[in-house]
Design a protein that fits this description.
This protein has about 230 residues and is an alpha/beta fold. It has one domain: Alpha-Beta Complex (2-enoyl-CoA Hydratase, Chain A, domain 1), CATH 3.90.226. The protein is about 40% helix and about 10% strand. It has nine helices and six strands. The protein has a six-stranded mixed β-sheet, sandwiched between helices. Helix 2 links the parallel strand 2 and strand 3. The radius of gyration is 20 Å and the shape is globular. About 30% of the residues are buried.
Length: about 230
């Protein structure tokens, strides 16, 4: 029996193995879908189809630095009248393509953007997490961490300004910048150095602690709050 060269088996494996660049589709429970776009060209058709099929959707566009026509396709899909009581939550960060962020600034029905607090972006809901920690949490899912391990429903109380955003969303109102919520603490408040800074061992323990995707978690909390308020 003849033996195939080893490179032939390598080619077969590469062809049959799922691509690490493929879009990631998941369910977040209670009819909330999650779609992470990883390739602005290959995932464009799937992204548009998912937006049209799923009225409750978390569309993750974080760390997608190239638009390649995706911005126009996403904007056109989101601009179409959604199903009744729909909510499309779009996650962005400082490395999301500027064209995508610009497309999301248009008046789009039932669309709410969430991202880390950063001078580079201005999401509707700004979460108090650094760009670095957000990218770390974003990478954890690609590295094999189960989606449910990255989020927790332990803190599901909406801030007042987020409750206002929910109300505006239900009425089809796009909030002005003055009402955009932020989790940022008052910079004028002086705080004691953290345990991580005072104690190197505490820093090591913090690094080994489970990763939480605070931006994705906030998206799930917002959806659950809309359900509780019977807006969906």
């Amino acid at each position: 029996m003849k033996h195939f060269p080893s490179f032939v088996f390598l080619v077969i494996i590469l062809v049959l193995a799922p691509s690490s660049r493929a879009a990631l589709e998941k369910e977040l429970g209670q009819a909330l879908a999650y779609l992470r776009v990883t390739d602005s060209h290959d995932d464009a058709a799937l992204t548009v189809d998912t937006i049209q099929r799923r009225p409750a959707l978390v569309l993750d566009l974080r760390s997608l630095p190239v638009a390649n026509g995706l911005a126009e396709a996403v904007q056109a899909a989101l601009a179409k009248p959604p199903a009744p009581h729909a909510v499309r939550i779009v996650l962005i960060n400082s490395t999301t393509a500027p064209a995508l962020i610009a497309a999301l600034t248009a008046a789009l029905p039932s669309v709410i953007t969430i991202g880390p607090r950063s001078p580079a972006i201005a999401p509707d809901i700004a979460v108090a997490v650094s760009d670095e920690d957000d990218r770390h949490a974003f990478a954890a899912l690609a590295d094999g961490t189960p989606l449910e391990k990255l989020i927790s429903d332990a803190h599901n109380k909406l801030r007042y300004d987020e409750a206002r955003l929910v109300q505006d969303h239900a009425n089809g109102i796009t909030p002005p910048d003055s009402l955009l919520p932020s989790d940022a603490e008052d910079d004028s408040v002086v705080t004691e150095p953290s345990e991580e800074k005072k104690n190197p061992e505490a820093k090591k323990k913090a690094a080994a602690a489970p990763v939480t995707d605070l931006v994705l978690e906030r998206a799930v909390q917002l959806h659950r709050s809309l359900l509780a308020l019977k807006k969906l």
